[in-house]
Design a protein that fits this description.
globular; 4 domains; six-stranded antiparallel beta sheet; 21 helices; 569 residues; single chain; Rossmann fold; alpha+beta; Glutamine Phosphoribosylpyrophosphate, subunit 1, domain 1; 18% strand
Length: 569
């Protein structure tokens, strides 16, 4: 990978057996750790930074800012604050980052509050090996045993939840958490605590915070690009960022959403380019699958086949705007009429967390017919998912006070779309605006019924009254109800074109590329599964065989893993 954090806690010389120092930009040798960083943007304001003196060292990796009004470089600031207040110092940083500090014989690695980066670790006789590339971390482990629970989570939901991975010897940094040489734990930065509505105006606060979040990122180097759709999220960036040079939209030039995105780009004086996907839109190459990190599906890296068409140094995007600001994981109220479901305004008064989360992750009921053969404890995939979700709700119950926030919390902890972020950050200077600490704080202070599109649109209009001059093509009306009626009519009435995605039809492209024959020869039972599930099976099989030189897993192994599975002899 082009960008990496790697290290060994309680290092006994093993670092040099696992990595070449010359391949990194900066290496810190301390009493308790050896840690290295590689990042083409190292040293730019707001990007990865390093610091050391006679007391120890600090690395802040990713996109990170010191508090407003502080001119001290981020790593130096974090080091001095850690010396003063310990792990509370990490709550003062802002952005999408990992931080390492070694000071006076103590060493710790911590995530940002929303864990927008995954950092993996394994314990060896020579110390705890950790890093952002799980395949390098796994190279230090021996006797790899597959975590069948984690593998089943991946296959049936599309995500491996919490700190688990598909290997029992490989763990992920806890959500809102940290680890040291011999323990791991959580901090208290991501806790739902609604503010007094008389003192916290949701629209005004969101508008001001959006403005500051984008302004913090307005001076990144080089040609500035944004991945722009015709919807709401990414247009907030181009409307506020004063220096966007070019907008990229995935699709065909004549698709309505691409046309709207082109109009938005013209409205704000930026160039527009259409990323026209070809038959490689479904990318099953190992160099794309690696960005799944063995915990998420690579299908979310929508633009992976279009990187050669993008000529930008810094790339912005609207990832997780819908999650933090518009209630992506919140269960919407619906009414059933003659077998059809009509969305209503407001939230479902009696949601089932497992049902909501499974639909937002990647569950497909077609998995159920194979499940009884795989795991004796449960009869169906949904029984398994119920168990997984209940376990998580119990574990994190001290961070929420209502069922809606519980669903949002588990969804955010296990966000399935982050491979999109991992791939972009490895190939560009990627800016993750939604991870701004002020926007996360708004999410935690705003009640679930106010975390919706209407609130966000009102905030965006405060920043720019003309921001919705060009409406999203699938939301032509101001009225939520009118939009839902039109969507229904377009789906049901012959001769009227339904709203559609600008992206290629995945099932049609899968068949056209004959991927059953290429990926699963000799596995006719897998051919019967939905395309997304088949791609998921290929993802994890490919990733695990690449991660372990001795691994020879088959698609059947990952679909129905034995209770105990060793990947090496």
């Amino acid at each position: 990978m082009n960008k990496e954090l790697f290290g060994v806690l309680d290092d006994d010389g093993v670092f040099d057996d696992l990595a070449s120092r010359s391949s990194f930009d900066w290496v810190a040798d301390g009493e308790r750790a050896t840690v290295a960083i590689r990042d083409p943007a190292l040293g730019f304001p707001g990007r990865s930074s390093t610091y050391r003196d006679e007391r120890g060292s600090c690395i802040v990796w990713g996109e990170a800012f010191s508090p407003d009004g502080v001119s001290t470089p981020t790593a130096e600031y974090a080091f001095e604050r850690y010396a003063a207040v310990g792990v509370d110092a990490f709550g003062e940083l802002n952005g999408s980052f990992l931080v390492f500090v070694e000071l006076d014989g103590d060493a710790v690695v911590a995530s940002d509050p929303a864990r927008t980066w995954q950092c993996f670790y394994t314990d060896t006789p020579d110390g705890r090996v950790f890093g952002t590339n799980p395949q390098r971390v796994l190279s230090a482990a021996t006797g790899l045993e597959v975590d069948t629970r984690g593998l089943l989570e991946y296959i049936h939901m599309g995500v491996v939840v919490d700190e688990r991975t598909v290997y029992s010897r490989l763990s992920c940094i806890p959500f809102d958490g940290y680890f040291t040489a011999d323990e791991s734990g959580t901090l208290s930065r991501f806790v739902y605590d609604p503010a007094d509505p008389d003192e916290f105006d949701y629209v005004d606060e969101l508008a001001a915070r959006l403005e500051r979040a984008i302004a913090r990122r307005a001076n990144f180097p080089g040609k500035q690009g944004v991945l722009l759709s015709g919807g709401y999220d990414s247009r907030a960036i181009i409307a506020q960022h004063p220096g966007i040079d070019v907008c990229y939209t995935l699709g065909t030039p004549d698709h309505p959403e691409v046309e709207v995105a082109r109009n938005i780009a013209n409205q704000y004086g930026a160039d527009h380019e259409t990323l026209v996907p070809d038959d490689d839109y479904i990318n099953v190459e190992e160099d794309v699958i690696e960005y799944s990190l063995g915990t998420r599906e690579s299908v979310h890296v929508h633009h992976a086949g279009c990187d050669e068409q993008m000529d930008a140094d810094t790339v912005f995007h609207g990832l997780l705007f819908d999650t933090f600001l518009r209630g992506h994981f919140l269960p919407q109220n619906v009414v059933e009429v003659f077998g059809n479901r009509f969305p209503l305004q407001g939230l479902d008064p009696d949601p089932d967390p497992a049902e909501v989360l499974s639909s937002k992750f990647g569950y497909h009921p077609a998995c159920d017919h194979v499940f009884p053969e795989c795991y004796d404890e449960f009869d169906t995939s949904m029984e398994f998912i119920d168990d997984v979700v209940d376990e998580q709700l119990d574990k994190w119950s001290d961070r929420y006070d209502n069922v809606y926030d519980s669903i949002e919390l588990i969804g955010i902890q296990n966000q399935p779309s982050v491979p999109f972020h991992f791939e972009l950050s490895d190939n560009y200077i990627e800016s993750f605006v939604a991870a701004d600490a002020e926007l996360i704080d708004w999410h935690l202070k705003t009640p679930p019924e106010k975390r919706n599109t209407n609130t966000m649109m009102a905030a965006m209009r405060k920043l720019n009254p003309d921001i919705f001059r060009h409406r999203p093509p699938d939301r032509p009306h101001d009225s939520f109800r009118k939009n839902q009626i039109e969507k229904f009519v377009r789906r049901k009435v012959p001769g009227i074109e339904p709203f559609s995605s600008p992206w290629p039809d995945m099932e049609a492209q899968y068949d056209r590329n004959e991927l059953d024959r290429k990926l699963f020869p000799g596995y006719p039972s897998i051919h019967e599964l939905p395309v997304r599930v088949k791609l998921r099976i290929n993802d994890i099989t490919t990733w695990m065989n690449a991660a372990d030189d001795d691994s020879v897993l088959t698609p059947n192994d990952v679909l129905c893993p034995p209770v105990r599975m060793l990947t090496d002899s």
